[in-house]
UniProtKB/TrEMBL annotation:
InterPro entries: RmlC_Cupin_sf, Ureidoglycolate_lyase_dom_sf. This is Ureidoglycolate hydrolase. One of its GO terms (molecular function) is ureidoglycolate hydrolase activity. It comes from Hibiscus trionum. Signal peptide: none annotated. The lineage of its organism: Eukaryota, Viridiplantae, Streptophyta, Embryophyta, Tracheophyta.
Amino acid sequence: MEPAKPKSEPTVINLKPIEATPESFKEFGQVIEASPDGEEFGPNDAQLDLSKGIPRFYIMNLQNRPLKFSTITHHASVTQCLGSIGAHVWYLGVAKPSLVDPEEVKKYKGKIAVQSRFGHFYVPPAIDDVHVYRIAGPKFIKLNNGTWHAGPLFKADAMDFYNLELSNTNVVDHTTHSFKENGVIFSFDE
């Protein structure tokens, strides 16, 4: 009997964090900053899609979220808003939405579309399409429907975050892609 081959160590891809600004983040969603009281609704406000269920706005306590990840998630049916309580620095890994119209699956430009366990189709994110954003100060992030995301990630032992999604997002609309299958872990530092 041949001895088992040792598993190779994963490839660590070091990413350089990008400062989240309305311009730098627009491909993935919005960066929402403070506006004067009484200002009317406009394009600088979160453009939300909460139409497919009951909205859930809550405080999410996260612990031990170091500056690395190997899985990434998207929500096909809802926008999601995240912001740190206390305006602490945090990070979010992202890749652009890759949802595919069911009518277009067969002719989707030669790429392989996958059907999620929730029924929608998507193309898995490419390693080269993954970025990390640094979010600092009194602002929050609105993710577009289908935006792949990993995090929030942070250096502290624990942080609290505002989270706006649907009441059942993590049960009926939580598609995850693992880069471990490709032997990849993303890492970054300030």
